[in-house]
Amino acid sequence: xxxxxxxxxxxxxxxxxxxxxxxxxxxxxxxxxxxxxxxxxxxxxxxxxxxxxxxxxxxxxxxxxxxxxxxxxxxxxxxxxxxxxxxxxxxxxxxxxxxxxxxxxxxxxxxxxxxxxxxxxxxxxxxxxxxxxxxxxxxxxxxxxxxxxxxxxxxxxxxxxxxxxxxxxxxxxxxxxxxxxxxxxxxxxxxxxxxxxxxxxxxxxxxxxxxxxxxxxxxxxxxxxxxxxxxxxxxxxxxxxxxxxxxxxxxxxxxxxxxxxxxxxxxxxxxxxxxxxxxxxxxxxxxxxxxxxxxxxxxxxxxxxxxxxxxxxxxxxxxxxxxxxxxxxxxxxxxxxxxxxxxxxxxxxxxxxxxxxxxxxxxxxxxxxxxxxxxxxxxxxxxxxxxxxxxxxxxxxxxxxxxxxxxxxxxxxxxxxxxxxxxxxxxxxxxxxxxxxxxxxxxxxxxxxxxxxxxxxxxxxxxxxxxxxxxxxxxxxxxxxxxxxxxxxxxxxxxxxxxxxxxxxxxxxxxxxx
Length: 514
What we know:
By secondary structure, the chain is mainly alpha-helical. It has 26 helices and 5 strands.
């Protein structure tokens, strides 16, 4: 029991966690440079040049982290994806520590950490830069300190939970829903005794203090994130699944066999004599699941919360095997089966295969094309499709731009219809001598129309009829038609000769927050 009371990063039982964490980092770094920059990564790179306490569609931390990352490591694919790879390794380590806090030994640590390493949605999220790879570190780190507070009767540990949740809110706003769920879990279980201590309220104060900069920014700008989310809801942008289908997606995105781990973990926390001590963890998950289902959240929104259930599942299987000597074979067989199935799935979540082999491989496995947004159409899953075509598109734009007379080029703006195209112009454009793009999509709207008046525009992602409606004369350029990209990245480059309204006057009408 002494080792359980004082778990350390260097405990012998944590060896599998360290090994699998290292394997996760190597796996990501060996594969994450094979395709190209992801659409959102180009946007994040642009945001990292415009640091602020908030943005239309995300919290401030990710652009700040990327700014630091590119300063020290550069802007290559491997460079900007290094921290997400390390974050996956850290997530695996935290899972092992949670398993130890729940009473697990080496097998529990091995099984729970391996479950994370083969969970498709978790591994895929860590394959590119975004808020998502870091989200679980804040959530599961806070759970770790909650468990420490329970095991050692030290509610002062909640202060660290407060720090992590506060930082988590600055990383991604969905952390607010995790906070609501954890609060409900505390109120619904014996941990409501913490309400009588100063530590819980101090933790709450820390969360508010850390979240305050972004909240002030939101107030100053009229709550743009709320407007953005409301617009998404109004246009039914995201696929909205009924409850049964939503639950099925949880099983599928985590690898079906992993259900034997996390569902067993949920049962352990709810019904096991020793596991019931940690019911706050189960309650947190169930409340969060209910919130995401009610709000029709995307299936991957729950990914950051599962490591704690994997940890509990590892403890469940460890206890079961230890209590029945005839099941000891499972200590070898179960991890091997998990690993084999994970390796089989890797080519559909990591850039391993040539792009033209991905769809046939998915068909061979009986896996359908995943869709989280209603208008997704591509021969590849979006997380792959959005990594293709950007340099080629920018080269086409450069060809159009450089054919213009020199005096006209100086007055010509490149107006992108979405932040992906705008980010691509900003990132790849300098090598062709292109000026920075302008766009009214998401946070690009705030950066404005620069010095341009609208007398000459190269328009990307625009419908021809819409362009003709707004322009005095429209010339059609080359068609952007790279085979692996999303449907909305197949369009004709348009040259607008003279907006009917001056660009400063038309700018508000171009605004798109979705």
